[in-house]
Amino acid sequence: MLCPNCKSEMKEDFCIKCGYMNNGNFINQHESQDKYQDIKIYNKQFETMNRNQKKWLNLILGPFYFSYRSHILVGTIIGIIDFLIFILTASIISALISIGSIYCLFAYFIIVFYVLTNRIMYMTFSNYLCIKIDDIKIKKIKKHHQNYTKKLQKHKSSSIIYILINILIYIIPIVIILYKYHT
Known about the structure:
This protein is mainly α and 183 residues long. It has helices spanning 29-34, 37-42, 46-50, 55-61, 64-68, 72-99, 104-144, 148-154, 160-182, and strands spanning 10-11, 14-15.
C-alpha cells in the first residue's frame, strides 16, 4: 500500500518515510524526544522516579521523601497530616486496649494495617506527585526567566539537608509545647 501523504511504500500500518499512520495521525520522533527534556535537566533522578524504581527509599522516608526531593512545604504538610492520622490511630488503639485484653489483638492488627497502608501509599504515589510538582515549578521558571535552562541545571533534585530542615520544622514546635507544659 502506498502512503497517501508522500506516496512511499507503507510498512504494516505506517509510513517509515514521513510517519503517516492509517488512522490519519503522524508519528513525530522529535516531539517524543523533547517531551521530558526540561524535567530531566531539572530532576536528575527523573528516569528512576518516572519508572517508580527505588521504592525502598519511599518506604523508609515516608513523608520525609518529599523533603528529600526538595519539596519542603509539601513534605511538611503531608508529614503533619500523617502525624495527625497516627495520633488518631494511637488514640483508637489505646481505647481498644483499655476496654479489655480481647481487643488487644485487634489493636495490633490496626497498627500493622496502618503502617502497611501508609507506606504502600507513599511507595505508590510519592514519585508521581514529586514529578507533577517539578513540572509546575518548571512552568513557573520558564515563565519568569529568559534563559531558564541554566536555572534548571542549578537545581539540586535531592538532598539530605532538606530532610534535616523538615525535621527541625517538626522539632521546634514540639520543644516549645513541651517547655510550656512543663513550666
